[in-house]
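#onboarding

Welcome to the new folks! Below is a worked example of what a typical request in this channel looks like: someone posts a single protein sequence, and someone else replies with the predicted structure as tokens. Don't worry about understanding the tokens yet, we'll cover that in week two.

Example request:
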Amino acid sequence: MIILFDLDGTLIDSTEAILESFHNSFDVFGVEHPSDDAIKALIGYPLDVMYPRLGVKEEDVVMYVQTYKEHYREISTQKTYLIENAKEAVVLASEIAEIGIVTTKTGLYSQVLMEYFEIMDYFKVLIGREHVTNPKPHEEPILKALESFNTEGKEIWMMGDTKLDLLSAKSAGVNSIAVLSGYDSQKTLQKYTSHIYKDALEAVKWLKSRK
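Example response:
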């Protein structure tokens, strides 16, 4: 079995760091801030998609993203937390499957976070925004991650907390499993998968029970 994990809302909660970094960027450029709810509604999308949807002109997006990343890099480890049971989920998953990470976050910073939480060594691969041309919900990130595995004869699962993860899984032709620890509601998630669990640990326990 191969299990690919999303990060935000699935294994980590970086809401505080994300919101602060967005508000910092709007401060830097002296423009009106979007609401926290508007920002949170877009978490899961890459920054270069989020900023235009928050009203930033396309020609200015690169500057905003750079400002965001500079601030996020400084605060990410202090204002990001492992979701309850996440480490246990990763450890258990590594015992029953080969595992990887597929995120729309910058891979470099994601690896720093995983090392900070002392769980990076469990994962065989980490695919971030800079590793692909087309982020989730496109299938490219999943297919890119699977290049690091021998997939022959193996059941493959993508685990995430938003429809982006589930749509990416469908496009890539792999199984999807959703968790309620993140940003999309059960009502939204059930449109895209029939496998929905409270958190990553519950989801992994279910996968283990099927072996």
